[in-house]
Amino acid sequence: MQLLNEQEIEKRKDREALMQLGIDPYPAISYPINASAADIHKNYENRKNDYKNISIAGRLMTRRIMGSASFAEIQDSTGRLQIYVRRDDICPGEDKTLYNTVFKKLLGIGDFIGLNGFIFTTQTGEISLHVQQLTLLSKSLKPLPVVKRDEEGNVYDGFTDPELRYRQRYVDLIVNPQVKDTFVARSRVISSMRRYFDEHGWLEVETPILQQVHGGAAAKPFDTHHNALDIPLFLRIANELYLKRLIVGGFEGVYEIGKMFRNEGMDRTHNPEFTSMEIYVAYKDYNWMMEMVEDLLGQIARAVLGETQAKVGENMIEFAGPYRRLTMFESIQEYAGVDVSQMDEKALRAVCADLGVEVDDSMGKGKLIDEIFGEKVEDHLIQPTYITDYPIEMTPLAKKHRDKPGLVERFELFVNGKEIANAYTELNDPIDQRERFEEQLKLAARGDDEAMAMDEDFLRALEYGMPPTSGLGIGIDRLCMLLTNKSTIQEVLFFPQMKPEKKVQVASDDDFIALGIHPGLVPAIRELNIHTLEQLRGQNPNKLFNDVCGKRKKLKLEAPNPTKDEVENWVTGA
Fold this sequence. Notes:
Helix content: 25-40%
Shape: globular
Protein name: Lysine--tRNA ligase
Family: Belongs to the class-II aminoacyl-tRNA synthetase family.
Keywords: Aminoacyl-tRNA synthetase, ATP-binding, Cytoplasm, Ligase, Magnesium, Metal-binding, Nucleotide-binding, Protein biosynthesis
Low-confidence stretches: none
Subunit structure: Homodimer.
CATH superfamily of the largest domain: Bira Bifunctional Protein, Domain 2
Catalytic activity: tRNA(Lys) + L-lysine + ATP = L-lysyl-tRNA(Lys) + AMP + diphosphate
């Protein structure tokens, strides 16, 4: 049963009234548009002759009814435009129903209308559309939140609750049009990144989302089952191993921008479904990749912001290179005050205890170092900083360092205390890779549910030979957060994952009867659109008494009228 409030009921009545007048509330027509609100505001003063026959469509957002003429505002995808509607202009004949009944009474805030007319400037200097034809394009059945603005344009009593905004993004975009700017910027981030790669001759590709073996990252996957093949499958946690297969196959540069899925926690910087870019370029190493990333991010910042600096919270981030470089061990030494470079697992556990870093028995040496780094270092890395040369235990897919035993050639880029990029000189020795996978299996046996699985087909591909290669992954969502100055990942995702909505518990007849309502009066209660105990308790007792008595009479119910005291007890639960 759909529970409706009074406004929703009235909107449905308006819909029925329109249909009785022969007006389809949802016509199947293609409506011609030759102008937008933004175009009109920008160009009308300099090109007035071009705006004498305007066709525009949008959502009705405000109305000021003034007898035989009215002002209103419509909102299209580019902004708002004031409209002026005269009864005799849209109703040139004897029949004034379109204005007197349809426009004044049956149309409401949120409805889509199409308008024809000419642009003029009012006595107060407002650029407006003088409407000559009006067409209903779509009737809304839910009221929009009322967002109020003062004379200076400041918003108050707005649609600001984060949970409602993220859950009902469509409403957020309607009443908070500035939210669109964030997603326009997001689109520019991706398009400028794609353009940069394409100009360098690297090929955009697509790899499987459903995978038989999850790999390419240390993360817990979502699992599912394919009925026809009767096999388990995993939503990908990364696309790395498939992209490397394409390097084996002969492509010199491939990249993919797409969704990844990790069955892990949710917070201000993590969503279980997120967008990542990964690129692999043959005959390169991680030193070359660091220089490429600096150039790439500088160009993206200029495309989105017009400059290389971005305001992020209280900090001004400079995306133009070069970026500071610290090894993993140097960063821990600098910010945690301890040298972990020569420590074994036992010593690392002691350091974690001294530093108050929480660990568990499943963590090996690499994970322990990573926990220390995460707790004591990350928050200090505000300006773009490369953390390089990780312990081999932390990175099963990176090549051993050419000069430093026990380390791998890897970097992560940190900005504003968060990792946004991860890159390696890729491991292309199939024997070494198999040994790394076997170490991961040992970690999995200890209970590490983020350990990588053995991927025999990937190993087979490496055995055919992969050229020296450097690979990079960038978190698109976190990069967008930085470039739009947003503190939560939910702000840069159209539809972030949310907890299920609480279902409204519809009261049964017995629930109403238990409150002392005569069984014969329950139909009157429901006819008043009261279907939950919460709705009943929100009623005004005197009004409810009159309404129930009126409905009892209209429905010809045999039950007697309640007393005012009885109705008072229904509402208070006494």
